[in-house]
Amino acid sequence: MNALLFLVVTFCLAQGEAASILESLSHADNVVDYISTAYETIYHMEEDEYIPGNILFTDSNSLKTTDGNTTTVIAGNAAVKGYIEGIGEESRFAALTGFVQISPNEVIVADAVNHCLRLVDRSTGETQPFVGTCGKEGNADGATAQFNMPWSIIKDNQVPDHLLVIDRINGLVRSVLVNDRLVSTYASVMDKPKNLVQLDNGDLIITSDHAVSSLDYSLHNLTLLAGTNETYGSDDGDFSSTRFFHPAAVIKLSDSKLMIADKANGKLRVMDLKTRQTTTFCTGMPAKCDFYDPRSLLLDGDELLVGEQGKIIRIDRDLTGKKQLVLIAEYDVECSSISDAMSQSSLQSVSNNNYRQIEEICQTDCKRPTGAEPLISCRAKTLTIKWPTDVEFKGDIPADIQKKLSERLSAKGSMLQIFLMHRIPPVVYPRLNKDGAYAIVGTMNIGPDVY
């Protein structure tokens, strides 16, 4: 049982457009506050169509816009909930959990606790009821429709002039014909659905208490993708073993990759619909994997914005094409044997200690970045440990470093052994490659770097 060790550029999460986005974002050198709000909850964000370059977002009971420096209240008061139709800050809402811009001048908001959709005129700041009976919950279609906590809204990409709305407590997806202000029931889904996004073929991805499901657009068949509403957790891996803890926003990175704001876990999760695998998204060196109560997400050009409790975090891509060297070892291990907390803690400690061997392999050519931690994953009986180094470059690995590290990895790769308490024997060495060598040298293009 000896060694396969890879010298590569920092790990790649996916392929194609989604891969470029994820890889570049996952290597942010630092993550910065975009704005901090005086109050609490950033339920939803979109690019502002009325003021190009701004971000339109809801802050608890108010609708606001910001350029990252200056924030302007459009309607409502974040700290005061109620029901008042008015102009600007005179109006009152009770939890603006979603919105959609039907034109640059008009925003339809989901006023969840008031149980209705309302229209905000951007040019005047005036609000008015749109559909539903404000102040009264119910379940009725037509021109006198009733909702019970309308939660999130999207434009139906298959039918012009139609919106799709999560009716949370009723467990429904409702359809709204905008021009006629008519509501119909599109599909009965699950208990307490929350947020939704639509794929190019029209199918809906819906988050609920602890699960993510798919709704077939034509047949309205609901399929559980990952998680279960009966059990919460934070496990990655195959969809069948994935667990969430109150997932909130879901956005589309591509038609086969989704990002989920896993609110109560404080994580961002990536779901690959092709491989049916879930991974936890981390950014930065040292890695930032934890976010404070994330509820909303927006992929805005070169930025990923994360709506945390009381602020919006920006992860910004720098189009410099930087790469970073990482040493990667693979081990033959049953993933189930290291899934408990004690084994994970022990493995993290052993991997950190192995940085001493990494330094011997690097000598003066590379070293451990300040605060960097090994990245550990296990899939299909293969444990993978990745040790970041401080070497950054563009293009190919510098030839002199490639030659020296290749020689050292082939000669000393077996030093990166690990110790597993529950295994007999407990010492596990890295895997040999098919040529009987301890190492190969390669590169993976991670796309633009981030700052």
Describe the model.
This protein has 451 residues and is mostly beta strands. The chain has two domains: 4-11 and 322-450, no CATH class; 20-318, TolB, C-terminal domain (Neuraminidase, 6 Propeller), CATH 2.120.10. Helices cover 10% and strands 42% of the residues. The protein contains four helices and 31 strands. It has helices spanning 16-25, 341-353, 355-362, 399-412; strands at residues 4-9, 32-47, 55-59, 62-66, 71-76, 96-103, 106-111, 116-121, 127-131, 150-155, 162-167, 172-177, 182-188, 196-198, 204-207, 211-215, 222-227, 237-238, 247-254, 257-262, 267-272, 277-281, 296-300, 303-318, 323-332, 375-379, 382-393, 418-419, 427-428, 439-441, 449-450. The strands form seven sheets. Strands 2, 3, 4, 5, 23, 24 and 31 form a seven-stranded antiparallel β-sheet that branches. A five-stranded mixed β-sheet has the order 26-27-25-1-30, covered by helices on one side. The chain has a five-stranded antiparallel β-sheet with strand order 18-22-21-20-19. A hairpin with a 4-residue loop joins strand 7 and strand 8 (116-121). The longest helix has 14 residues, at 399-412. The protein is elongated and about 75 Å long. The two termini are 40 Å apart. Mean pLDDT is 83; it is low at 1-16 and 439-451.
